[in-house]
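Box 3.1 — From sequence to structure: Protein kinase domain-containing protein
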Amino acid sequence: MALTISKTAIILTILASIISSSLSSPIIDELNQPPPPDFSSTLSANCLRDPSLRYCNSTTSDLLNIFKSTIVSKHLCIASQNPNCNLSFSFINLHSTPTLAPLYLSFSFFWKYCPTSILSINLSNNSLKGPFPSHVLQCMQIHALDLSHNALSGHAPLEAFKLLTNLSFLNLSYNHFSEITDEKDEYFLIKRFNSSSFIHSGLLLSHHHGFKVTTSIFLLVGVLVFAVSVVGFLGRLFVRRPDYLPSILRRRRHNKYTPAMLKAATGGFSDDNLVEKSERWEIYRGRLRDGTEVGIRVQRGRFSRVSRNAFVEECRVLAMMEHENLVKVLGWCDNRDLIAVVSDQRTSVCSVEEWLVGSSPPWNHRLKVCIGVMQGLRYLQQQWPQVGCDLRTSNVMLSQELNPLISKFRVGTKQNNAEAKIVYKFGLFLLEMITNKNPREDFGGGEEEFVGWINKVYNHGHSRTLIDEKLRVISSQAYEEMKRALSIGLACTAVKSDSLPTIDEIFLMFSRISASSQVVHKIHAERKKELSKSSHHGLHIL
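Predicted structure (token representation):
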């Protein structure tokens, strides 16, 4: 162990001499320190809380490298300008930092224990040389990787890319990689990532054969088109309104919207299209130029580059989520004076709150909505634990087919979106669905008074009086199902309880209620059919 520490110290000393002393000195000094006495117990405690941490199955011989990886992680998070490194380390951004990028790439122990919260890695424009830095691929959870504008050479690890199932953006352009010899591998890269990810990378066959001829032709055509078509006011218009460009000429930034596009979609942010307004946000309905109906959540002010970068990273995560019970985030706008989130509203008819107040939905329809909401919450918890939502009846939209769509997401950490918080929010949602009472508007004491009132009435055996007045005339079967749903809602909102139900347990309970309800409806339908046949037969005899 002493020999290993000595070799590491020599390497770090050499690295320290070739990079700027303002950054290297603190990290080098910290890396030369031994782990604190309680470091091993700290790791054990962390693994008990989250067994998915990469170091959880390590041996004591790895203790030193794990300690070093935590030091590097702290410095790299700050160097990448993450908004709050105490809470989240979601991206690595070392773009155009030729002194820092090689340093952090040299810390193989960091990449071995890469934090699972990192979703994006940007090492572009750093003049990196040598083979592909394969150890960055040990961050197998990443969604984006940018190594463009470097001088990397040799073979690209194509098989490793296939293992990164979450990787949706890859940019290896402007490097010197060896040409791919198998057309199947080239087809895989183009189909999954698009050929624009490999411009002048050396990888694609088409970039070698006839390159000079193709380049000359495109240059000639480009000059002619430029001379004939570029007019000043049109150029400015296309910058402000890229949706006016023919689709073949648009840049591949489908998620990016400009303020002018949003202004046009909302009629100049008119009051007629204003749906909701708070101290921070304004929510508008709008229609894009292609006819897509959207919801646009707008915040105005003066936004720094750091805050805008953090906002964009959150939106990139939200735009990747796909589920039938989540409102689809189409894109965003990040401007110095305005930021906005654009979501698809094509299938939305109204909110659940409006539906409850403006109509008399039967219990089986309310049950369907609750199950759909629970399916959306399960997806978030299982696939995107860092994404939470503000679950309220006003924030859940309904389609024409009564398919619920959860909206108003936020990206934080797994701890901020703990399952207990989600369960509590769902419990409030469920109780509001049954009682048709708003805990924030109908009760002066808010949610606590709302839950207390339901508990008191329920425990006194008067559960029928809790049910929405529009549902008082119901079958005994529906009443029993609603009583079970009330008990589930109260269990979810029992904040002082040590045994809150899990999301999976709640989903199972609702599945049983739904199955029971479907059986009863089927029996009633068959009875009606038999009575109808019987009545028709009697009339025929007469």
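Summary of the box: The CA atoms of residues 434 and 467 lie 6 Å apart.
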